[in-house]
Amino acid sequence: LKRCNFYTDQSCGGHIHIGASYFTSKEDYYMLVYLYSNVENILYYITDKEGTIKRSSVERFAMKSKEQYLKAIDEGLFDKEHLDDGIKDTFDEINKDRYKGLNFKNVGSEYKNTIEFRMPNGEIDFNELLLNIKLFARLIEVSHELVSHPNEDFYKLASVKSEKEKLNILLDLLFTSEEEKNLYKDRYYTNK
After folding, report:
1. pLDDT by residue (tens digit) across 93-140?
2. Chain CA centroid to CA 50, Å
3. What is the pTM of this model?
4. What is the pLDDT of residues 7-65, one digit of tens each?
5. 94, 26, 152, 170 alpha-carbon torsion, rounded to 10°
6. Angle CA(99)–CA(181)–CA(137) in degrees, nearest 5?
7. Can you list the positions of beta strands (E) in 32-169?
8. β-bridge mates for residue 115, sequence order
9. Would you list the DSSP string of 125-153?
10. Of 62, 34, 54, 67, nearest to 159 (Cα)?
């Protein structure tokens, strides 16, 4: 892309789609919503290259949605009885449009059955893109794994108040390599 003179500017989003077919149960989605709701602010910092300011259009095209998900949980939209009607219906009820940092509008679509992460800024540097792909892929993978094998960190995530502690718990859940964890920590501390 660089050789062909492509570039990104302050208006570009770096949306990443992960195939939703990896999830095998509605509880997988619920777990992703749980994780996301506990670390939403952190994700907005660790999805951009170090020293980056979040694009202004994020407020319009990749809004934070934690409050909507928490409200939906409180209203019982993720209760087993409601989920039996179909996860797509649940998400359609919660998300009226696709302009959320975590977008479920494509889930169940015949043409694009994906979970979309819209919060990263646009980026053409391969290493930066790869960090985001790994982050979101692991978030999906761990959401699936935690449904059947919850661990101590999973339980701590909701009770911890410090954002820095939540960052460490999140990274411990997602990655085993200290080198990888440090890449996201560097993003967090410089972007915050």
Report:
1. 888 899 999 999 999 888 889 999 999 999 999 999 999 999 999 999
2. 18
3. 0.92
4. 888 889 999 999 999 998 888 998 999 999 999 999 999 999 999 999 999 999 999 99
5. -50
6. 45
7. 102-103, 114-117
8. 18
9. -HHHHHHHHHHHHHHHHHHHHHHHS--HH
10. 34
